[in-house]
Amino acid sequence: MSQPTPMMGQSPTNEYGPIGQEGTFLDHVGGIEWRVEPDAVSIRLTVRPAHVNPNGTVHGGLILTLLDFTLGAEVERSLGAGQQGHPITIQLSSSMIGAASLGETVLGSARVTARTKTMSFVSGEITCGDRLIASATAVFRNPRIA
After folding, report:
1. What are the CB-based long-range contacts (under 8 Å, 24+) for 42-45?
2. CA dist., res. 127 & res. 130, Å (int)
3. Could you give the CA distance from residue 125 to residue 20 in angstroms, rounded to a whole number?
4. Which residues, including other chains, have CB under 8 Å from residue 116's CB and lie 6 or more apart?
5. 3-state SS, residue 108
6. 8 Å CB contact between 16 and 62
7. How many other C-beta atoms are found inside a 10 Å radius of the C-beta of residue 80?
């Protein structure tokens, strides 16, 4: 099993690509892509049959997974190089507002709202076109400085 690809030091790009989490839970979920830019991280996922609930819409657990990954990736990007490890989720609060169906593409975005030496506070959302699917706020434990 390969190790997760660290984000720190990754070159910014305007293209979505694999998240580099081969052999991990996120690899098992499948289909998550991300784009790392100098001032933001965004994710996207096209809803597959394995992603939906019996109602034919994306499963709420997947939405929470996408929020956790998006918010944590934005914390990591905003901290920059020199960190040892990855941010750890301390608290995640979310509101499920809408739904996405099979074949639709959802996008995730986040922004750090505050930071202390040891914690980062972040908010974000998952959208599908012009529809808000879910929003969240979270607290992450910052990685140690290398």
Report:
1. 42/16, 42/70, 42/107, 42/108, 42/109, 43/19, 43/69, 43/70, 43/73, 43/107, 43/108, 44/16, 44/105, 44/106, 44/107, 44/108, 45/105, 45/106
2. 7
3. 22
4. none
5. strand
6. no
7. 9
Chain position carrying tokens 């920059």: 80
pTM for this structure?
0.89
CA distance linking residue 70 with residue 42, whole number of Å: 7
pLDDT averages per 10-residue partition of the chain, 146 residues: 43 77 87 91 96 96 97 94 87 98 97 96 98 98 87
Place of tokens 């074949």: 103
CA distances (Å), origin 73, targets 1, 14, 55, 124: 22, 16, 30, 11
Cα pseudo-dihedral 119, 114, 128, 40, rounded to 10: -90
